[in-house]
Amino acid sequence: MTSAPAIEVDLGSSIPPYEQIRLQVVAHVSAGHLRAGDRLPTIRALAADLGVATGTVARAFRELEQSGVVVTRRRTGTVVADGTPAPDTAVQDAAARFVAVARAAGLDDDEALAAVRGALLGTREA
């Protein structure tokens, strides 16, 4: 990975740090910022950059590997797995529009995500 997309951890969030890392990597893959074969930082380097324990990053990477988003190889490290779906541009455009509306309404990330979760729950009941 030549220029790594930003990953941040909010230690004050109700979302555990490992899950924040996992979600952000998935989001970067979905958005096309990370593509098949792109290398993620080492566990040790990412943990140091984020100010979290190596076990926290290791758990995120383990869960990413279990879900098929990344693979870990001895010589190449952790890379985005082949076969990860290409980003759906219509969905990405809709997400960008939603973020713009949420920001204009003054919502923070947690409030915007709560709105999305609510909408997703509403579609399950329909």
TrEMBL record:
HTH gntR-type domain residues: 15-83
Database matches in SUPFAM superfamilies: Winged helix' DNA-binding domain
Keywords tagged on the record: DNA-binding, Transcription, Transcription regulation
MF annotations from Gene Ontology: DNA binding; DNA-binding transcription factor activity
Entries under CDD domains matching the protein: WHTH_GntR
PROSITE patterns, per the entry: HTH_GNTR
Name this polypeptide is given: GntR family transcriptional regulator
Keyword Transit peptide found: no
